[in-house]
């Protein structure tokens, strides 16, 4: 015997779902529970077609992988698709927060589908963000009523936030440059003084540098996939930007170009064997030079970019300015990484109040007269009362 729940969807189509047990409204997997949840969703205007919710997560993720704009993004999404584990065959509408927590535990402690190997916290956080995005798209398309990831604590990324102690000093950067050959030194200086990503530095052409106006046009990045063109589209639309070029970097780049043969559309930098640089190759070179320069382990080429951001913040740049210079997709990304570098404004607010109360007339600028102990009045300079 089976129990059937029947209803008419918003489009006027008759639907039904069968259950082995009648159960109760608070007992998942039973007819009464399904009916109760269905009525609640329809009353709130959150109806979801059960047939759509039966599609597997794997199918939805594959669609998302195919929509990737760049090779790098496609590679990251494919890696995520290969790590869905037990979530992959599940109907997207059947995924519960507890299923996601179990999946996160597998990623952290050991993946049964990958010989028990675990992932680092940064990779776990990235995979969770990808799952959140896919399920959010499903919710926006009406496939899900609610994204179950919203009820799961977001994994922390250990390197997501930068503190002053984790930023390279000017002395360390000078030492790195001095221990490099001319080209690598130029690349490091350019990164530290413009904040470009390593792949963006590797993708620069001669025509992307305006020496007269002292500007760098970021329009492409290096492609680290073998067998592909040497350059690729940028990470995000916001990555396409124009960045001011400081005098020192402008001079050093100009002097470097005078020593090599480059056409206008040639890349600025090539390896010793004449190949385009990759972000991975730059990272390896940085580690080698860091040993010679006495820079502590743990720093990477990307920390030259962090130095640039910290310098802007130290000089009072706004969140929006830093976001635009770095090419972040949103101000939230900028704040997530650099919020600890913005100065504490407590002392500034206290000073502002101190200045007001110790000013000549004891009032903020533009407010005449002296403050009267009586909250309801303000007395002008001649002692007469004035309405507040």
UniProtKB/TrEMBL annotation:
Keyword check for Transcription regulation: no
InterPro entries tied to this protein: DNA_brk_join_enz, Integrase-like_cat_sf, Integrase_catalytic, Integrase_recombinase_N, Tyrosine_recombinase_XerCD
GO biological process entries: DNA integration; DNA recombination
Keywords: DNA recombination, DNA-binding
Residues covered by the Tyr recombinase domain: 163-351
Record has tRNA processing as a keyword: no
GO MF annotations in UniProt: DNA binding
Listed transmembrane segments: none
Extent of Basic and acidic residues compositional bias: 371-382
Pfam families registered for this protein in UniProt: Phage_integrase (PF00589)
Classification via Gene3D superfamilies: 1.10.150.130, Intergrase catalytic core
Protein name according to UniProt: Site-specific integrase
Disordered: region residues: 357-388
């Amino acid at each position: 015997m089976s129990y059937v729940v029947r209803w008419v969807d918003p489009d006027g189509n008759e639907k039904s779902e069968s259950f082995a047990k009648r159960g109760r409204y608070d007992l998942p997997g039973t007819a009464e529970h399904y009916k109760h949840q269905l009525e609640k969703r329809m009353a709130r205007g959150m109806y979801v077609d059960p047939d759509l919710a039966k599609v597997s997560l794997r199918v939805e993720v594959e669609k998302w992988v195919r929509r990737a704009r760049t090779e790098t993004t496609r590679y990251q999404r494919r890696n995520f698709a290969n790590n869905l584990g037990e979530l992959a065959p599940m109907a997207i509408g059947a995924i519960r927060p507890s299923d996601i927590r179990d999946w996160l535990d597998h990623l952290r402690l050991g993946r049964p589908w990958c010989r028990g190997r675990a992932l680092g916290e940064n990779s776990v956080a990235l995979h969770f963000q990808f799952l959140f995005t896919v399920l959010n798209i499903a919710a926006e398309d009406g496939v899900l009523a609610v994204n179950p990831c919203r009820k799961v604590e977001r994994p922390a990324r250990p390197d997501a936030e930068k503190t002053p102690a984790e930023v390279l000093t000017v002395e360390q950067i000078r030492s790195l440059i001095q221990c490099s050959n001319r080209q690598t030194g130029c690349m490091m200086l350019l990164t530290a003084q413009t904040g470009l990503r390593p792949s963006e530095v590797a993708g620069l052409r001669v025509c992307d540098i305006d020496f007269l106006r002292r500007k760098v046009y970021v329009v492409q990045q290096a492609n680290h996939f073998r067998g592909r063109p040497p350059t690729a589209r940028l990470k995000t639309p916001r990555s396409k930007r124009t960045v001011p070029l400081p005098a020192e970097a402008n001079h050093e780049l100009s002097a470097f170009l005078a020593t090599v043969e480059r056409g206008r559309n040639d890349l600025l930098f090539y390896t010793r064997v004449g190949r385009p640089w990759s972000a991975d190759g730059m990272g390896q070179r940085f580690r080698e030079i860091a040993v010679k320069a006495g820079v502590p382990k743990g720093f990477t080429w990307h920390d030259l970019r962090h130095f640039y951001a910290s310098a802007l913040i130290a000089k009072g740049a706004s969140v929006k300015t830093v976001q635009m210079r770095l090419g972040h997709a949103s101000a939230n990304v900028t704040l997530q990484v650099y919020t600890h570098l913005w100065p504490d404004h407590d002392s500034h607010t206290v000073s502002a109040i101190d200045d007001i109360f110790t000013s000549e007339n004891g009032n903020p600028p533009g407010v005449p007269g002296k403050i009267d102990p009586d909250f309801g009045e303000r007395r002008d300079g001649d002692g007469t009362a004035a309405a507040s």
